[in-house]
Design a protein that fits this description.
The protein is of the alpha/beta class. It folds into three domains: 96 residues, P-loop containing nucleotide triphosphate hydrolases (Rossmann fold); 310 residues, ABC transporter transmembrane region fold (Up-down Bundle), CATH 1.20.1560.10; 180 residues, 3-Layer(aba) Sandwich (Rossmann fold). Helices cover 62% and strands 9% of the residues. A six-stranded mixed sheet has the order 6-9-10-3-11-12, sandwiched between helices. A four-stranded antiparallel sheet has the order 2-1-4-5, with helices on one face. A two-stranded antiparallel sheet has the order 7-8. Strand 4 and strand 5 form a beta hairpin. Helix 5 packs antiparallel against helix 6, helix 9 runs antiparallel to helix 11 and helix 9 packs parallel to helix 12. The protein is elongated. The protein starts with 17 loop residues before the first helix and ends with a helix. It binds adenosine-5'-triphosphate. The site of adenosine-5'-triphosphate (ATP) has 11 residues, from helix 13.
Length: 650
Amino acid sequence: MAWGGGWGGGGGAGFGGGHVASSSANLPFGGIPTELQAGASKILAQEPPHEPSHLSFSQLPSERERRRLTLPSMLWDYKRWVVLGSLLVIVISLLLQSGPRLTEYAINRGMVPGHHSLKVIATTAVVFLVVALLGTFAQRSQAIVTGKLASRVMHDLRIRVFTHYQRLSLDFFTDEKAGVLMSRMTSDIENLQQLIQDGVSQFALQGLTMIVITAVLFTTNVALATWTIVLVVPILFAFTIWFHHASERGYLLSRDRIANVLADLSESLYGIRVVTANNRQRRNIVNHRHVVGAYRDANLYTGRVNAIYGPVTIMIGILGQALLLGIGGRMVLHHQLSIGALIAFFLYLNRFFQPIQLLVQQYNALQQGRSSIIRLRELLETPPSVDEIVGATTLPAIAGRITFENVSFGYDPTRLVLRDVNLEIAPGESVAFVGPTGAGKSTMAKLANRFYDPTSGRVLLDGIDIKTVTLHSLRSQLGVVPQEPFLFAGTMKQNLRFGRPDATDDELEEAIDVVGLRELVERLPNGIDTVVHERGQTLSAGERQLLALARAFLARPRVLILDEATSSLDLQSETVIERALDRLLEGRSAILIAHRLTTAQRADRIVVIDQGGIVEVGTPDELLRHEGAYATMYAAWLASGGRDATRESA
Ligand code: ATP
């Protein structure tokens, strides 16, 4: 195996340790270019200190987390900011609308024949300027307030969604595409941020502006205001309803299609090894082109709808102005309206249409924000399929008796994978599950640590139904070494301590020796402080398995579940592992899912699972003497040279 140049200098990097982790780890993609280093250090020096979080996590959501996700409920915790923002919006809207009134005043009192006054004009101009300055200041303050509000609300929401992801059960993550789950955290939350930062305040501001202008129009001249409302508003209203339907359709389309784009992208990136190995690049590009193309079409449609709406509202505005010019001009001639008032009316009318245009622009943000809220709410209201019962007790320290009592289970309850399984594993006993592919071995293991609940029957630990205890207390006594161990971005040390962060250095060293990781650790540039990459792709499959075994050894669980945990090891590692397993299994109950019959032979008892049921149970010797399914499997295994025979025999 070639160790890439990406190692080196990796000491002290933490999980999510930010810039320290990436720069000291010398990762190929994580470093800051030297020419930017000075600037980056300056920015980091100005960073406010981040207090470490002291969060507690419980499987059952708190009262606050159970609150239905709506815009008001999200804003509720920041009432003071909302009130301040709203007051500022009112102030801005009033300040902005005083312009035409001042113009009217300057014309009527300073410019028309008989009322010439430079003083009035100059004073009004100064007031105009002051009002404009105040308006700018208020707008700046309002942007700061809503910006802060949006950042805080989004921060809370991100934590809430992430916490919910941590609570959900395995089936949720198997059923949902990873890209879709990511898009909840990325595009949906960004849409909401946009909505809270600009959308809501703009909506309030523009809505208020329209109300203020309507009131001003009526106080200026009732007849002219009535004409405006009667002639212009119905046309505008009908047209807006059309737009509402057309753009809603567009947003639903683009919403679904961007989710497809993200899902396709994440699948291609996640499966890049398989893609490359199978020469699927071209097919993938074609596929991605289709989904991106569909997304583009949806955007084009929305663009077309918007392109109609903007100019048409302008046209309606001009139509209104033309009508007013006629009607208002006639009123001026008949001395029913002052010339200043007519000009003010025109200015206001322009401003009456402006908010409509802006509202239409914000309408997109509102639509997106609304559908994002709906999707996030659905997500937050999805209960974990495996949940703690109310009043779940803490599982006391167990001896390790595992009982499957009339257990039936199907991932889809109408298609059972296991049927009426009964099995008892004594404390300290190791039991190997063998059987053909797809027989249900891993499923049995998943039921034992409550990744799923049986469709019927019970799983008991020391006689206690595991459904009645807290998930935390249950899993703290169970150790699982999965088929494909997952390593997190961080150092080897942190990965080893994953299940027990308080393990001492001596215990760490012991675990490394026991599973035979010493040689690997010594080869690495920084020993156990070397950074391993996300998903451990820089370690070989066997090395990852050794690391996962060491992790389980350190966690010291009462019950161990090894899901083909030694399948990727070579024969030499296997002998090391044999010894390691002896130490690992000492005094512990264990379920070993075994394809290699060497592992199975070491177990105290073997359980042969086939077609959703147990077909044979006994010690290795008993089963070999019995000449049943296991003996046949064993003979085939010997004949094939003793490697991975159960797959073939299946
Ligand atoms: P292997 O030796 O290949 O690991 P196994 O005996 O461990 O096989 P299981 O993983 O327990 O088999 O699967 C049992 C059956 O359940 C299989 O038919 C499989 O297709 C099905 N299955 C497994 N996981 C799921 C899932 N998440 N959703 C639906 N069906 C599943």
